[in-house]
Amino acid sequence: MLATEKQYVQWFENETLRHARWLSQSNQVPPARIVLVDDKTTADEAYRLACAGTSMLWYGDFHNARQLLQALTRRIEHSEQRKISKAANKQDKSAGSPHSDKSTAESLVTPKIIPNLFHQQRQAQAQRSRLLSRLLLKLDAGYISQLRRAPDVRAACTAAFGQLDERMDESCLLSFRDLQGALGAAGWRAKGVPIKPLNLSIFPHYGVFAPTRHEYVQLLLDAPLPDTCRVAFDIGTGTGLLAIILAQRGVKQIIATDLNPRALACASENFARLELSAVHLQQADLFPTDAPLANLLVCNPPWLPAKPTSPLEYAVYDANSAMLRGFLQGVKQHLAEQGEVWLILSDLAEHLQLRSRDELLGWFSDAGLAVKYRLDTQPKHGRSQDETDPLFAARSAEITSLWCLVPFDN
Ligand SMILES: C[S@@+](CC[C@H](N)C(=O)[O-])C[C@H]1O[C@@H](n2cnc3c(N)ncnc32)[C@H](O)[C@@H]1O
């Protein structure tokens, strides 16, 4: 996940030139301008510095840095909100409905407005990430923080960023935000994400799609298995969740693939914890090699056709629907006679006007596949109920489906 080329960063401390390894999970380039900040730095000063492109190396109390980050987040959100409302008003007016009595969310369901808002929101998120990433801390060799009241971050950082070269006494600079990401992931990995319908927990690793929103699990439990179901593939297994469901439902041989080595390590740990011997893992671009034909092909690709901007976004955004279309195109080559495909997909992309239903149906038929049936569910996660979200109209209308597809000639 880290850039394979090591990068270094330099800064001055009391006129002495210092340097350290640069770590950035969102592939931010090493900062060119760094000033030292501590507990005396106010949130307004920090916000001004961040907006001016200056990075701040924290030398104060660890917990105060967390508070400063929260204060910065509030300032950034405030400024984003103002920009988004201004843009929404402008677009609403240009769509000719200045005095409509519809709610803001309803009035935004106008061609072009929603996709524009989606892209604006993503740009705002990217800008937020850039600004927040300007608060930095230094960790000494072995990921040890010398900050006052700093927790032990060694295990979380090693799991997220890998082993640094301790023999070279390598210290590193990274953003507090990345450190918080590593600590959050370590928490999930330790506690697990409970999957209620299965009565078990899944333990995600850093950088692996965490099934915190798992409304689709029930769909996989409800769909009738094909009459013969000896071999199934789980394409893009992530934590291994779908393979686990298939194993629990009695499928004897499951081959789970993923491109991301972190996902394979994570799924392997989850399978071992549940003592599942039916599942075999393979690192593969979509379909496994040297495998028998499958009676069931299951895939939950990233749901939004948009370009990922960091390695952590690869499980959420699928540029040009490459994984979805690649999967559909490859299905017939890997499916046994009378086999079925279970595609898990939300229609959020349709509500955001990033893909149309006709386009999706066209991809099914181009791949020689017909819809046998579809199971739907409506997500109930927090964002789908947040009326202040500019994309509320789209999010609240979202349906997640299990599409059961079969070849035309079945
Ligand atoms: C949305 S996540 C789904 C994870 C898991 N199946 C689940 O439902 O929780 C998509 C997964 O597909 C993987 N992926 C993306 N492109 C892939 C490809 N070309 N081949 C194999 N896996 C891929 C990602 O690494 C990610 O783990």
Describe the structure.
The protein is of the alpha/beta class. It has two domains: 1-191, no CATH class; 192-407, Vaccinia Virus protein VP39 (Rossmann fold, 3-Layer(aba) Sandwich). Helix content is 37%, strand content 21%. It contains 13 helices and 15 strands. The protein has helices spanning 43-51, 62-94, 104-107, 113-132, 154-161, 176-191, 216-222, 241-248, 261-273, 322-334, 348-351, 357-366, 392-396, and strands at residues 7-13, 16-22, 34-37, 55-58, 135-139, 172-175, 193-195, 200-202, 231-235, 253-258, 279-283, 294-299, 335-346, 369-377, 400-407. It has a seven-stranded mixed beta sheet, with helices on both faces. Strands 1-2-6-5-4-3 form a six-stranded mixed beta sheet. Helix 5 (154-161) packs across helix 6 (176-191). The radius of gyration is 24 Å and the shape is globular. The two termini are 42 Å apart. The chain binds S-adenosylmethionine (SAM).
